[in-house]
Specification:
The strands form two sheets. A seven-stranded parallel β-sheet has the order 8-7-6-9-10-11-12, sandwiched between helices. It has helices at residues 38-45, 62-66, 86-91, 111-124, 127-135, 159-170, 184-189, 197-203, 223-228, 246-255, 294-312, and strands at residues 3-7, 26-30, 50-53, 73-76, 95-98, 152-155, 175-178, 193-194, 206-209, 234-237, 260-263, 283-285. It is built from eleven helices and twelve strands.
């Protein structure tokens, strides 16, 4: 019998179009829904020897991996996936492979940086609300905020934060930044000024989050940090939902203690139909679109097929490891 490959969380039904799956000596099945129930997920995936996961959409903790005795290869898009128990996979003899993939042709520009600015403009200029008003027969309802000359604050100044900073400077925004390991020299090299955490929240007109999710950063933005922000300030999160205390942020938005928020990432994804986020005012919400571009998908899925093909032929693959 042919090796069976499961391609998960193909929400837009496009995975088949972005790679040559027919080149594989395998039977490939595409799943367009998301299975949150662990028992149901295990029942679905038990027959498959190979699973292709899109980022962290479906977690693979030890309990799930132990219940998949046929699994030999788990390919995740990207070279980092916090939702896979890599130690358990290694113990169980499951190879976990990663892929390359970024938005532009040369893979140097990050599409999440572009979405960050889309959210900044959408929330500061009330674009979704004005679009809806116009379609419903109305005309101007709001007064937007210009960003030129206002302070851009970056929580995290790695590759993404540096690209967001470059665009901010093009609009004449002073850029300040903080992260736990940021130095004055690194900040200056990125065109920013390093400040302490309190000043970052107190001085930013637009505060954008660009740090990875880890034990140190989970809940890093809580009620105390939000209380430091100006009532005219905006928070943008295109990184990971759990970095922010979501209940505290929703409370601040309902109370009008900050001007608004652009949110692309959430603690629970996909966002449940009855999730409280859907009723929060002063927000522009998008369904984790930061990396969802044609260029990224083409790179992700092509590399996934390449990894599966190499594995089936006994050739080396790009292996993720717990270190």
């Amino acid at each position: 019998m042919a090796v069976r490959v499961a391609v998960l969380d193909d929400y837009q039904r496009v995975a088949r179009d972005y790679a040559d799956w027919d080149s594989l000596p395998a039977s490939v099945e595409f799943f367009h829904d998301h299975v949150a129930d662990r028992d149901e997920l295990v029942r679905r995936l038990q027959p498959f020897e190979v699973i292709a996961a899109m980022r962290e959409r479906t977690p693979f903790p030890r309990e799930v991996l132990e219940a998949l005795p046929n699994l030999k290869l788990l390919v995740t898009t990207g070279m980092r996936n916090a939702s896979i128990d890599l130690a358990a996979a290694s113990e169980l003899g499951v190879t976990v492979s990663g892929t390359g993939g970024s938005g532009s042709a040369d893979r140097s520009w990050q599409p999440t940086a572009e979405l960050t600015w889309g959210l900044i403009f959408a929330v500061t200029r009330n674009i979704p609300l004005e679009d809806r008003t116009l379609r419903e027969g109305g005309w101007q309802r709001t007064v937007g905020v210009e960003i030129g000359g206002r302070t851009l604050g970056l929580l995290g100044l790695g590759r993404l934060g540096t690209q967001v900073a470059a665009i901010g400077r093009a609009f004449g925004m002073p850029v300040i930044a903080w992260s736990q390991n940021l130095t004055d020299e690194a900040a200056e090299a990125a065109g920013a000024r390093r400040v302490d955490k309190e000043e970052l929240f107190a001085s930013s007109d637009v505060l954008s989050i660009h740090t990875v999710l880890s034990r140190r950063t989970r809940g890093l933005v809580g009620a105390a940090e939000l209380a430091l922000m100006r009532p005219t300030a905006y928070l943008i999160n295109t990184s990971r939902g759990p970095i922010v205390d979501e209940a505290a942020l929703r409370e601040a938005l309902h109370a009008g203690r900050i001007a608004g928020a652009g949110i692309d990432v959430f603690e629970r994804e996909p966002l449940p139909a009855d999730d409280p986020w859907r009723g929060v005012p002063r927000t522009v919400l998008t369904p984790h679109l930061g990396y969802v571009t044609e260029g990224t998908y083409r790179a992700f899925y092509a590399d996934t097929v390449e990894s599966i093909g190499a594995f089936l032929e006994g050739a080396p693959v790009r292996v993720l490891n717990a270190g």
